[in-house]
Design brief:
The chain is of the alpha/beta class. The protein is built from 13 helices and eleven strands. The structure holds zinc ion (ZN).
Length: about 375
């Protein structure tokens, strides 16, 4: 879930919004202003209701942010890189690059979120009591206390990607020894919870309230698919952790003089090889960058085809590198799952291979075929 609107940094952590939130913000404010507040605190002006409602909706998202910040800060303290926080339709997501190192760290990172929501609920309850003299303000704090308590409870539902699912997985990790087994067991329980929610939702559609029923069933379905993708991701990462870069990389690598033109390259060099990425070197043999066949084909026939490769190459300093004995799991954690940039593999300063997403995909397919996943 990438943010569509960037808000800025809090404690050095990037915070963004998803567009869906703007819609939900309006919905919450509207519900408070025309339904909840007029019902519970009658006799106020429309402006007063709307002001309280807008403050309530803003405070609600501040509470969501507090919940996610707690996850992100504890994760960072435990040595897990935090890519950022995105607030969206269902609340917030802390995007973590990498995994906790221990079951304890996983439990702390997951547990601190609901704990923060419960703490906020307690503070809001205090404010609700203190502000009893002005009913609308007091009512606003009462509502915040309720939604934060609900947020804490909902997040403890034991299914991925909710905090309860991660807590459960941490407990199984601690009992069964590996993160992968922990996730596997937690996903199985999460699946039961998700099917129960779908079942309850369907029953509710035909009995109590169709709208609530559809909501619950939809959430159940969402948890079901989130559990499957969590398990697939964990299995893949575990498989990659057992494989050195040297097993997946393409080797040997053909390097091209960086002073040949794009035209010369496409006419006489590219047809002779089957690679899609080529490192280029200067007359002294020093590597200066990397060119991709796809980028060069795009400029063929145009004015840029006359240019030399060094004008179009991605500078060598921007290209990520790896050692042949590094495991693929940690490399992908470092460079990103997309591996879009291609990785050059050096052994003792010598270029020995190049790694592309296709290399990793091919290796995974082969391992799957061999039943080693
Ligand atoms: Zn959470």
């Amino acid at each position: 879930m990438a943010p569509t609107i960037r808000l800025g940094k809090i404690f050095g952590i990037e915070v963004g919004l998803n567009w869906s939130l703007v819609f939900i913000f309006g919905l919450i404010a509207w519900t408070l202003a025309v339904d909840l507040f007029p019902q519970q605190v009658p006799g106020q002006t429309g402006t007063a209701y709307w002001l309280a409602a807008l403050a309530g909706a803003a405070a609600f998202y501040a509470c969501l942010l507090a919940h996610e910040l707690a996850h992100a800060l504890v994760a960072r303290r435990s040595g897990v890189k935090v890519a950022g926080i995105t607030l969206w339709l269902f609340g917030g997501v802390s995007r973590l690059d990498g995994e906790p190192k221990s079951a304890r760290a996983e439990a702390l990172i997951a547990g601190v979120g609901p704990l923060t929501s419960f703490a906020v609920a307690v503070i809001a309850t205090g404010l609700w009591l203190v502000t009893a003299g002005s009913p609308l303000v007091s009512n606003l704090f009462g509502w915040l206390a309720f939604v934060n308590a609900a947020l804490g409870v909902f997040n403890l539902v034991p299914a991925f990607p909710l905090d309860g699912g991660r807590l459960l997985s941490a407990i199984f990790w601690w009992r069964q020894g590996t993160r992968q087994r922990g996730v596997h067991s937690a996903v199985r329980i999460g699946r039961v919870v998700a099917y129960l929610m779908i079942g309850i939702g369907v029953i509710e559609v035909f009995t109590v309230s169709p709208v609530d029923g559809i909501w619950i069933a939809f959430l159940g379905w969402f948890l079901l698919s989130a559990g499957s993708s969590e398990e697939a991701g964990t299995t893949m990462k575990a498989a990659l952790r057992a494989v050195p870069v040297s097993a997946a990389m393409t080797s040997p690598v053909i390097t091209i003089p960086d002073w040949v033109t794009v035209e010369q390259f496409l006419e006489s060099i590219a047809p002779a090889h089957h690679f899609t990425t080529y490192p280029v070197h200067d007359p002294s043999g020093k590597l200066t960058g990397v060119v991709r066949l796809g980028d060069l084909v795009k400029v063929a026939g145009g004015a840029q085809a006359e240019k030399r490769l060094n004008a179009l190459a991605r500078p060598i300093a921007e290209v990520p590198t790896a050692r042949p004995d590094e495991d693929l799991g940690s490399l992908i954690e470092r460079v990103g799952l997309g591996l879009e940039k291609r990785v050059l593999v050096f052994d003792d300063g010598q270029l020995v291979g190049i790694l592309s997403p296709i290399d990793v995909a091919r290796l995974l397919t082969m391992r799957q075929g061999a039943g080693r996943m």
